[in-house]
Request: fold
Amino acid sequence: MNLLILLVLHSLWCQPTGGQAINRSAKAQVSNKKNLSDSIPSWVYTLYEKKDSAFSTNTKINITFFRPLSDSTSYCLFEASDNNCLMTFVATQKMKKKYKLLQIGNECDADFSIPEYSFTVYEHDSLLHKITMTENTLKAKPEFLIRENNTWRFKEGYNLESAATRAYMTVSSVMITKDGLLDIHH
Reply:
């Protein structure tokens, strides 16, 4: 039952906001790529869209937002997606070089054989340079699990869909400063 509630919450979070300047999720963004690419300097694409060793070779990088903070600092949001996950990052730049980086969103396919599933969505307020992140976690109750070789697994006949679960939500925020720092509040 909690899984159904969590999936419904996830689908609601990923709905467009009706024209507000807030991005609920990278998947929910509807943008005109041509207009967006006109507002993002080419050097930003060079910094983030080139193959980075931090990501696998089949990962696609997409810059979704860019904003100057001063003459020498700026920030952007970008997505890294592969066949299983969509991760969203906020990155700051100083003097047209990478400065700070923080993952703000994580939406991966669920594996129901694992007793825990979590995803993180975000709201981006571009006027205040603030991002609010919400991590949603679903955990199976202990009576449906056994401990084997120092790991928890489901008892025979149960999975994340059929076992009783508990849902948890953690909210944190990050402010992007004019100096390009990422001020995190838990």
Summary: The radius of gyration is 19 Å. Strands lie at 60-68, 73-81, 85-94, 97-108, 116-125, 130-140, 145-148, 151-154, 165-176, 182-185.
